[in-house]
Design goal:
The complex is a heterodimer of chains A (664) and B (265). By secondary structure, chain A is an all-alpha fold. Chain A has one domain. Chain A contains 22 helices and two strands. Chain B starts with 9 loop residues before the first helix and ends in an 11-residue tail after the last helix. Chain B is built from nine helices and no strands. Classes of the chains: A mainly alpha (664), B mainly alpha (265).
């Protein structure tokens, strides 16, 4: 048997070598033929590119997302002088190092597939972007070298050299972000081309003009946040699997904490995601109203219902994990009574979030309703309703997190005991809120209706959101003032109430009025809602930090004492975000329909049609399975070299002590 | 004297919550819709929406019940007590019989549910309709020639002429005020939509309307099916200019404005 294995091991590389060298030679022996498209050994070329591109994107999202929070965790470890943070950051980076080579290999395969299967289109794209390719390659070297330097120098760069190590981590993120920006510019150019003659498609000579296309930055912001959430949940699922297989309490405590950090990172990135998505969506509408209509009201509208289901699962799952986690915090039972209300709010919001404008109806229902649209439910399908509920979901999730955070905290200290720094920081937060809320209110009060192609009388619709922004400034300072007089919890409650009333209810309803009377102004309503919510989150976070700084503890956090369903929730969250990534990748690319470069270069291949939902679901589902299986394999490989007992978080009293810093 | 305290178990709270949700959706919403819209009949919640809301309600209940081991235990308690039966001889005779009847009825209820869900019926299928099929490339970049670059109408007479054409050709189905309530419209199973609803033509660029008027239902692309539309193709009856005028009048009559390509930020 061993002999057979040895023979097989010897034969496999030889066969692979022969295959990879002789096959291209055999193809190269044929006379070159100018082709617009080529097949892939009888397979559908588009399918090949779709699968490889999506897998590359998923791995890319992971290797770009993880370093962002790995370096933050490392920095917290340096500041708190707690080695457990450092260990956690290192474990995150270990996963990164393992996945990096797979990402690069898939990137190479994608490039070969594209150049091989779509030669004409790639020739055109290369003609426009070839200068950026070289920068990309250089950055890739920088990314690779920095990553391995960051990972392998972990032990050497400790103590007084720690800052250098953290700098390497930051550099790793800089290179990664630049790489993402360059690759994004190619994809966004295909959707909203610039820097070319719009009639002939001729490149006008400036690579920057092509890179800085209209959808470049909106897509980059959306991807950046998506990558962080994706990385957090993949790391969370890794920790969950490790937790489920853990043999000791120490291991359980460590992986429980790691899973919690992964979920926390994902929540932090998910909170601004809906706004980033809205911004990208609006810019797609702006770049091409037809593409926008295809996206939300046309061929791709039902895929957005799938997206809503997946996002719903993410938010409910993330909240559910926090609620279960409160069970391991002595004292958190005081806040258990709120869970049912948050749960109810989330469910009602998701019911609205999921309801399409255009409900699937039977003929009998159409008759009973008297048309295609239900007279009441149709309103839930419009953007104003969606924006209102998504803001409520964000506020509720944040509220869940605050409850979790203060689970084991006792009575807050009198505010004066925090010294002048606390007042200065909180006032600075107030000034920041005043700055962005005030600036946007000023913008709304002075906005020229003509700039939105609206008649002058429509300016009256701009005042109300402006007024709400001013009220929010008052609410922020009232909350701060209450904090200064030891009524911080009341201040937080006031700010939550004002924000929910204005961002969710008032602007939620007002959005319908604007939609009817001054539609182009609608995006300003969404921005106002976002700013109101962000101000609430920002002010309440800082109030909470000082409110419970130094507060007595009712009990410790029993890390590792989590029911297994919480870990399955982390796995479910991971599967959900991978599905979401696959689905959204399809939507973004599919929106171009039968265009390689939208409106400029048509896709005339056999497979230029938009696939059916069923076909898309099968392909995306398969990609999800392949990705999850392959990344599990990669993580297994990464763990092969590990010792039996890695340095992990202490259990019992030690773990509780460690945790006191972690919930801060 | 201590006042009487009654605490409903988590199991029954969940069951009652689900029943209340169902009754609200099945009867409350249809009745409220009738009152709000002033119609004469109840407006049912479509089955697909009903299924979606009820699944969410069940998920929500299960999520809440499983947030702690104590809650799971509390939820399971009445179920287990029922399944285990009279362990300590304290049940009355009727309770014992009720348990037996329930246990015996359960498979029949389940079987009945499966039967009624899967039996062949003559009901029309539920269609996953696409609201706005993809506009063909030939129409995509068209602009209304009767508007100035800033979106204003070049001459108000175009709107007036379009209004006459609209009332003559479109009103029978789309209604005098473009509310989708023309006298002929009632004859269709799928009534024309109200253009006054900001979720309809106000979300579309004018080129889209031009395509729909010119090509009608017959010109819809295959991927747009199932598409129930009785819209005639007007390309033989109306000139392009007349169609553009009608579009101006439609927006004017409905009191909404066409979607404008917004400025990129």
């Amino acid at each position: 048997m061993n002999l057979l294995n040895r023979r097989f091991r010897a034969a496999f590389p030889c066969t692979a070598f022969l295959l990879f060298t002789l096959l291209p030679l055999a193809f190269a022996a044929q006379p070159p033929v100018e082709a617009d498209y080529r097949g892939f050994f009888g397979f559908d070329s588009r399918l090949v590119v779709w699968i490889v591109a999506e897998l590359h994107l998923m791995y890319g999202a992971f290797v770009l997302g993880v370093p962002i929070f790995a370096v933050i965790v490392e920095y917290i470890g340096k500041k708190s002088r707690d080695p457990k943070y450092d260990n956690l950051a290192r474990e995150f980076t270990k996963l990164l190092a393992a996945a990096f080579s797979t990402t690069a290999s898939l990137g190479g395969l994608l490039a070969f597939s594209l150049f091989g299967l779509y030669p004409k289109f790639m020739g055109y794209l290369t003609g426009v972007f070839h200068k950026s390719y070289y920068v990309y390659a250089l950055l890739f070297f920088a990314e690779g070298f920095t990553l391995y330097l960051y990972y392998y120098s972990w032990d050497r760069l400790q103590g007084r050299w720690k800052w250098l190590h953290i700098t390497l981590g930051i550099l790793l993120n800089v290179w990664g972000t630049l790489l993402m920006l360059i690759a994004n510019s190619w994809a966004s150019f295909m959707m909203s081309p610039s820097g070319i003659d719009k009639e002939t498609g001729r490149f006008l000579g400036s690579t920057w003009a092509a890179v800085a296309n209209p959808l470049w930055i909106p897509l980059a912001i959306h991807r950046f946040l998506g990558n962080v959430a994706f990385g957090g949940l993949i790391a969370g699922a890794y920790a969950a699997v490790k937790f489920l297989g853990a043999k000791t309490e120490v291991e359980k405590a460590h992986y429980d904490w790691m899973g919690y950090v992964g979920n926390f990172v994902a929540i932090a990135a998910l909170i601004p995601m809906p706004f980033a998505g809205y911004y990208l969506g609006r810019e797609v509408y702006s770049a091409s109203p037809v593409m926008g209509n295809n996206m939300m009201g046309g061929a791709f509208s039902w895929t957005f219902i799938l997206q809503a289901i997946l996002i719903g699962a993410l938010f409910i799952g993330a909240n559910y994990y926090l609620w279960i986690g409160m069970g391991r915090i002595a004292g958190a039972e005081r806040y258990g009574k709120y869970i049912k209300y948050i749960n109810l709010i989330l469910l009602v919001c998701f019911a609205i979030w999921l309801t399409p404008h255009n409900l699937p109806l039977s003929a009998a229902e159409q008759l009973a309703i008297g048309g295609q649209y239900h007279p009441i439910l149709k309103w839930l399908g419009l953007m104003s309703a969606k924006n209102a509920v998504v803001n409520f979901i964000i506020l509720s999730t944040f509220f869940s997190f605050l409850l979790y955070r203060r689970g084991n905290k006792g009575k807050p200290l009198p505010f004066r005991e925090h010294g002048a720094t606390a007042k200065v920081v909180l006032l600075a937060v107030g000034v920041v809120c005043l700055g962005f809320l005030g600036a946007y209110a000023g913008h709304l009060f002075t906005l020229d209706p003509a700039s939105l192609d609206l008649s002058p009388d429509k300016a009256r619709y701009f005042k109300f959101p402006g007024l709400l922004l001013l009220i929010q400034i008052g609410a922020v300072f009232a909350a701060l003032a209450l904090t200064f007089v030891d009524r911080g919890i009341h201040g937080q409650a006031l700010l939550f109430a004002v924000t929910a009333a204005s961002a969710v209810f008032a602007l939620g309803v007002y959005g319908f009025v604007v939609m009817e009377k001054a539609n182009p102004f609608l995006r300003h309503i969404a921005v106002s809602q976002f700013l109101l919510v962000i101000a609430c989150l920002l002010a309440n976070t800082f109030i909470d930090i000082f409110l419970f700084k130094g507060a007595g503890e009712i009990g410790g956090i029993r890390w590792g004492k989590m029911p297994v369903r919480s870990q399955y929730t982390l796995v479910l969250l991971c599967v959900t975000i991978v599905m979401l990534m696959g689905l959204m990748g399809y939507i973004r690319s599919g929106l171009r329909e039968n265009w390689h470069v939208y409106g400029i270069m048509q896709d005339v291949s056999d497979t230029s049609y938009t696939p059916t939902m069923a076909y898309m679901a099968r392909v995306v589902g398969s990609i999800v399975l392949v990705f999850l299986a392959s990344i599990a394999f990669v993580f297994w490989l990464a763990g092969l070299g590990e010792g039996k007992a890695p340095a992990l978080a202490p259990s019992g009293e030690g773990a509780e002590k460690v945790q006191r810093g972690r919930t801060k | 004297m201590s006042h009487l305290q009654f605490k409903l178990s988590l199991f029954w709270s969940a069951v009652i919550s689900l029943i209340v949700t169902y009754l609200f959706l099945e009867y409350g919403v249809p009745y409220a819709t009738m009152l709000i819209t002033g119609r004469e009949q109840w407006m049912p919640v479509p089955r697909t929406a009903m299924a979606m809301f009820m699944i969410l309600a069940v998920v929500g209940a299960m999520v809440y019940v499983s947030t702690s081991d104590e809650k799971i235990e509390e939820f399971r308690e009445p179920v287990l007590a029922f399944l285990r039966g009279d362990q300590d001889g304290r049940w009355s005779t009727w309770a014992k019989w009720a348990r037996v009847v329930c246990l015996a009825a359960f498979p029949f209820l389940l079987g009945g549910f499966v039967y009624f869900q899967t039996r062949l019926t003559a009901a029309s299928p539920t269609t996953l309709r696409i609201q706005h099929p993809t506009i063909p490339g030939a129409y995509e970049k068209l602009k209304n020639p009767l508007r100035n670059p800033d979106g204003t109408v070049k001459n108000v007479k175009f709107v007036e002429e379009g209004g006459v054409l609209y009332q003559k050709n479109c009103r029978p189905c789309h209604g005098t005020t473009a509310a989708g309530d023309g006298p002929m419209g009632w004859g269709f199973r799928l009534k024309p939509v109200s253009f006054r609803d900001p979720g309809t033509i106000a979300t579309l660029v004018e080129a889209y309307l031009f395509w729909r008027i010119k090509e009608g239902a017959a010109g819809l692309p295959p991927e747009a099916s199932p598409w129930d539309s009785a819209m005639p193709a007007w390309k033989e009856e109306l000139s392009d200019e007349e169609i553009w005028k009608i579009i101006l009048a439609e927006f004017d009559t409905a009191g909404v404005e066409p979607r404008k390509p917004e400025k990129l930020e």
